[in-house]
Amino acid sequence: MEKNFSPLEREIYNLTGLETKREYRFHPTREWRFDFAIPAVRVAIEVEGGVWNGGRHFRPEGYLRDMEKYNEAAACGWLVIRTIPSELLRVKTIQQIVRACRKKLTTSSIEN
């Protein structure tokens, strides 16, 4: 794991042993990136800013672009956890991420 890792990356690694990548490009032809991704299990974390002040994600055009991105991510086998900045490092968010990783690990071992 890289030396300059964030608290989120450190926490996920400590709880799962899985590496988290920042600004991860997940799609083969589009420039879309996840804020954080755990590529080994195809779990992504998107931090939605501007919830309270009408930011880009919550204007009609931005919302529709996000829908396209998240739907394509699902079609590519990704599970996306969406949160806001103030919730990112909360216990409940970390628990959701860890549960998603464990579920994807269990599912992938059953399929193989």
Description:
- The chain contains three helices and four strands.
- The protein has 112 residues and is an alpha+beta fold.
- The model has no long low-confidence stretch (mean pLDDT 88).
- A four-stranded mixed sheet has the order 1-2-3-4, sandwiched between helices.
- Keywords: Endonuclease, Hydrolase, Nuclease.
- GO terms for molecular function: endonuclease activity.
- This is Endonuclease domain-containing protein.
- InterPro entries: Restrct_endonuc-II-like.
* Rg for CA atoms: 14 Å
Low-confidence segments, given as residue ranges, are none
The span between the termini is: 27 Å
Mean model confidence by pLDDT: 88
Structural class: alpha+beta
**Share of residues in helices:** 40-55%
What is the molecular shape? Answer: globular
Fraction in beta strands: 15-25%
Q: What can be said about the biggest beta sheet?
A: 4 strands, mixed
The number of helices is: 3
Q: Trace the largest sheet across and list its strands.
A: 1-2-3-4
Instruction: Find the count of extended strands (DSSP E, 2+ residues).
Output: 4
Give helix and strand order, one letter per element, not per position. HEEEHEH
Protein name: Endonuclease domain-containing protein
Organism: Parabacteroides faecalis
GO molecular function: endonuclease activity
InterPro entries: Restrct_endonuc-II-like
